[in-house]
Amino acid sequence: MAAAATGTGGQTLGRSSFSRAASSKTASSSSSPTASGVKLGPNGAAFVSSGIPDLDRILGGGFLLGSVVMVMEDSDAPHHLLLLRAFMAQGVVHKQPLLFAAPMKEPRSFLGALPAPVASSKEDARQRAMAGGAAGDGRDEGLRIAWQYRKYFGDERNSGAEHRDSKQEFSHDFDLRKPLERHLLNAQHIECLSTQDVDTLHDLQDRCSAFLSKHQRKEGGNLSAGRIAIQSLCAPQCGYFGKDWDMVSFLRSLKAMVHSSNAVAIITFPHTVLSDSFCKRWQHLADTLLSIKAIPDEDKDLAKLLTGYQDMVGFLHVHKVAQTNSQVPVILEASTFSLKLRKRRSLVLERLNQAPVDGSSGPSSGGSGSCSSSTQGSQLDF
């Protein structure tokens, strides 16, 4: 009986080799170090936050490390700067190296427009707990028995708290009305470049190559993420405006360099200044493709009369999502989201609520008699 209960080496037969291998694998994966602001996903994928928690959830975890993100600008409103500011601010908060290029004389002045993170709920709860402990002296006599059982479930509670804290550290909510603290902006890991002074794209390519060489992908090492933000790449203010093939060549080389590094590059460009053929080439080179559309002026007056539409400033379209190391494609719950500014300080993305469409009536033309015509022309009657 004793031999049946135990195997060779004193191992219990109740445990299988599969469970032992899984436990050792979990322990090794949990002990692997990751840098601040980097989240490990399925199939060995790593993500950095976009600075917008809703956008991270939509994209399946955030911006894939080693990918190029492109945002098509809208000529009516500069709403693309909201995404760019959140992306840059999130990297500065995590102390991740940043390379910023923009068609302005002093691009470092744009750093003053980066928003500050909102105080986390953990700090508020800690302050409330400290205040309650100071005011409630002598009132915790009935909780002594509960403290005795802390050793039985303390590990699970601590692990859950650490898991929640890691989520909060990965992505922050930013207050667009408060600027980022200056001591974070004065760090040495922020580089700025004016594309007005760049006559050829070789200079910009050399700066990107030197920046990405510091973040080469290494197996088994600590993941350190870098961020590249390029604003209005093909704007008329740039010194290389009109050189379409040179810009396509630059995008190809940048994509190749980013794919072999631990960095994410986000590029905003006014697609209206490009021809249709070159605009399609740009879209094909993007790993993640987004577009921003502002609400027309004639619809803003109507939005004031509708509940829930007062804070809406535009729409976000998701055209393409970067593929991870998996054969399963990313299926989005929606491709168009409303871009809202709640209380003019927090950026929120919400899926648009659409009314059900009658399949027998075909595409609606918006006419007043569409309901009566659809009921008369319906062939199926249940």
Summarize the structure.
The chain has 13 helices and 14 strands. It has a domain at 44-117 and 169-350: Rossmann fold (3-Layer(aba) Sandwich), CATH 3.40.50.300.
Q: Mind explaining what this structure looks like?
A:
The chain has a domain at 44-117 and 169-350: P-loop containing nucleotide triphosphate hydrolases (Rossmann fold, 3-Layer(aba) Sandwich). It starts with a helix and ends in a 6-residue tail after the last helix. Helix 9 packs parallel to helix 10 and helix 10 runs parallel beside helix 11. The protein has helices at 2-5, 17-31, 53-58, 80-93, 121-135, 144-148, 150-170, 182-185, 201-212, 244-259, 276-285, 297-303, 370-376; strands spanning 38-40, 46-48, 63-64, 68-72, 98-102, 115-117, 174-179, 190-194, 226-230, 263-269, 288-294, 312-320, 336-342, 346-351. It is built from 13 helices and 14 strands.
Attribute tags:
9-stranded mixed β-sheet; alpha/beta; globular; Elongator complex protein 4; 3-stranded antiparallel β-sheet; cytoplasm; 382 residues; tRNA processing; disordered N terminus; 13 helices; Rossmann fold; Elongator_complex_protein_4
